[in-house]
TrEMBL record:
<feature type="domain" description="HTH araC/xylS-type">
    <location>
        <begin position="417"/>
        <end position="515"/>
    </location>
</feature>
<keyword id="KW-0805">Transcription regulation</keyword>
<keyword id="KW-0597">Phosphoprotein</keyword>
<keyword id="KW-0238">DNA-binding</keyword>
<dbReference type="InterPro" id="IPR018060">
    <property type="entry name" value="HTH_AraC"/>
</dbReference>
<dbReference type="InterPro" id="IPR001789">
    <property type="entry name" value="Sig_transdc_resp-reg_receiver"/>
</dbReference>
<protein>
    <submittedName>
        <fullName>Response regulator</fullName>
    </submittedName>
</protein>
<dbReference type="InterPro" id="IPR009057">
    <property type="entry name" value="Homeodomain-like_sf"/>
</dbReference>
<dbReference type="InterPro" id="IPR011006">
    <property type="entry name" value="CheY-like_superfamily"/>
</dbReference>
<keyword id="KW-0902">Two-component regulatory system</keyword>
<feature type="domain" description="Response regulatory">
    <location>
        <begin position="3"/>
        <end position="120"/>
    </location>
</feature>
<dbReference type="Pfam" id="PF12833">
    <property type="entry name" value="HTH_18"/>
</dbReference>
<dbReference type="InterPro" id="IPR020449">
    <property type="entry name" value="Tscrpt_reg_AraC-type_HTH"/>
</dbReference>
<dbReference type="InterPro" id="IPR018062">
    <property type="entry name" value="HTH_AraC-typ_CS"/>
</dbReference>
<keyword id="KW-0804">Transcription</keyword>
<dbReference type="Pfam" id="PF00072">
    <property type="entry name" value="Response_reg"/>
</dbReference>
<dbReference type="InterPro" id="IPR051552">
    <property type="entry name" value="HptR"/>
</dbReference>
Length: 520
């Protein structure tokens, strides 16, 4: 179904044209309407239109201005002009703008119908040609990409074979000189697919001066990054200028040295990949050349002792000291001076000596902390060093509280176990909560709360249960008098014992004994 835009400042003409077309071609077209050229242009920018039928004389923007503006569009709709004047200047401008038909008002139905039939045939033919051309180009590009990918993966290939294969994909120009850029998306669109990234980069290349992009090729590598190879180094200079522009599509780029010879293709690719790693140290999208980083100091020692000190401080609320140590090992001046391998090694050591150790010792019950831990554990999850640094600092802060809580829990758990054992060994004596809390060296109020969390019941109820359980056992298995059992179970007098027993068992001690004898 085609989409027709009817542009006329008279509403009755717009609706009349729609009715005429819909009656002649039922369900063949959908319709959009505009009252002048400016309104039509706005609609064309947000909607795909196949055919524009426009008047010449309209307020705000006339039809001639509109058809000239349509010529600036990448995807141009077919245009039919309507006019009440058979003026040669209008017809001349229409021909220059590739207008398909010039119809005079009042519109004759047969003329409009035959024009639309002719346009439909033209559009179908154009689509067939476009599909065939697109298919052919796609096959050619696919073969070119596969060959380039193969050449990048196979380092054993000799120069002669490389030159031969590059010649097969029209890239013999590499022999005279080339430069490689590896591009990685750095934007905020989640789930950006490599194919979408490729389309966006191809669109950006269209804005580079044609002489700079005369000979170039672009291919997706095994890391789902884009590898751009160009004969003119100016292409990368143009892209670098655009990257740093305000509001620009965000990506980073690592650049190889400019070199020549097919046998240098793989080494140049490796240089670009290495340079790309250093965009991590930038504060935003940009490019880094291999020349600027190849002399970085590779002689460094990973500060294991300092990292171990950070691990030891977790749970002690010494956050400022931990932050100072983190700044010491990841100081930007130090990081910028050393090879990027230093940051990678520090990240690995932090994972092994700090983060992994915490979860090995204390487990991982906090989903939020686990999510942050998973992200910080892989430095490739971050576009920029500053984001990584602040995330590490944030995780250390969270882990400090987590470890403190877990330490408290483990200490409390051990002491509560000690307390319940003491109660079980001494419940038949004169025992109260103050005596037990002193036994485990806990504050009286804190012990009361911790005991209830550990056992699920208050100290008084827990003690009563133990004493009643002992009393039941003695009532069922011995001939001791009730007052004797009361004393052996730890109650202060028989009256108190009888009342508590009936509250918990529903019968008096003697009734309980009589019932047990009947059952026996």
């Amino acid at each position: 179904m085609r989409n027709i835009l009817i542009v006329d400042d008279e509403k009755n003409i717009r609706l009349g044209l729609k009715a005429m077309i819909a009656r002649e071609f039922p369900e063949a077209y959908t319709f959009e309407f505009a009252g002048d050229g400016e309104e039509a242009l706005q609609l064309l920018q947000r909607t795909t239109i196949d055919i524009v039928i426009t008047d010449i004389r309209m307020p705000v923007m006339d039809g001639i201005t509109l058809i000239n503006r349509i010529q600036e569009m990448v995807l141009k709709p077919a245009v039919i002009i309507l006019s009440g004047h058979d003026d040669f200047p209008y017809a001349k401008e229409a021909i220059r703008c590739e207008v398909k038909e010039y119809l005079l008002k009042p519109i004759i139905r047969d003329e409009l119908s035959s024009t639309l039939v002719r346009l439909e045939n033209d559009l179908k033919l154009k689509e067939q040609i476009s599909e065939q051309l697109s298919s052919s180009l796609q096959q050619k590009e696919a073969f070119k990409e596969s060959q380039l990918s193969y050449l990048l993966r196979h380092s054993h290939m000799d120069g002669e074979t490389m030159r031969s294969k590059l010649g097969q994909i029209d890239m013999a120009w590499v022999e005279a000189g080339f430069q490689i850029g590896v591009l990685h998306y750095r934007g905020t669109i989640t789930g950006m697919k490599p194919s979408e990234f490729l389309v966006r980069i191809q669109d950006e290349l269209a804005h580079v001066p044609e002489i700079s992009r005369h000979r170039h090729a672009i291919v997706q590598d095994k890391e789902n990054q884009l590898m751009l190879i160009a004969e003119q180094g100016e292409l990368f200079l143009s892209l670098t200028e655009r990257i740093t522009g305000a509001g620009y599509f965000m990506y980073s780029m690592g650049l190889s040295d400019y070199t020549r010879g097919a046998e240098q293709l793989q080494s140049a690719y490796m240089e670009a990949q290495e340079a790309l790693k250093y965009t991590f140290l930038q504060s935003g999208p940009g490019s880094v050349s291999y020349e600027s980083i190849c002399a970085k100091n590779k002689d460094f020692t990973v500060p294991i002792a300092t990292i171990q000190r950070i691990a030891n401080m977790l749970g002690t609320d010494r956050n400022k000291e931990m932050s100072a140590l983190l700044l010491e090992i990841l100081d930007m001046k130090t990081v910028a001076r050393l090879d990027i391998a230093y940051v990678e090694a520090v990240s690995k050591a932090m994972n092994e000596l700090v983060f992994d150790k915490v979860f090995h010792v204390y487990g991982g019950e906090s989903v939020e902390i686990l999510r942050l831990f998973k992200k910080v554990g892989d430095i490739s999850n971050f576009y920029y060093f500053s984001d990584y640094y602040h995330s590490v600092e944030g995780l250390l802060d969270r882990l400090n509280g987590y470890v403190r809580t877990m330490k408290t829990f483990h200490i409390d758990h051990r002491e509560m176990k000690k307390a319940t054992q003491y109660i079980q060994e001494n419940f038949d004596k004169d025992l109260n909560m103050a005596m037990v809390s002193n036994h485990v060296s806990f504050n009286y109020s804190y012990f009361s709360q911790a005991f209830k969390e550990y056992t699920g019941e208050s100290f008084v109820h827990y003690l009563k249960k133990l004493r009643i359980e002992r009393a039941r056992e003695l009532l069922a298995t011995t001939d001791f008098k009730v007052y004797e059992i009361s004393e052996r179970a730890g109650f202060e007098n028989v009256k108190h014992f009888s009342r508590v027993f009936k509250e918990m068992e529903g019968v008096s001690p003697q009734e309980y004994r009589d019932l047990r004898e009947v059952i026996s």
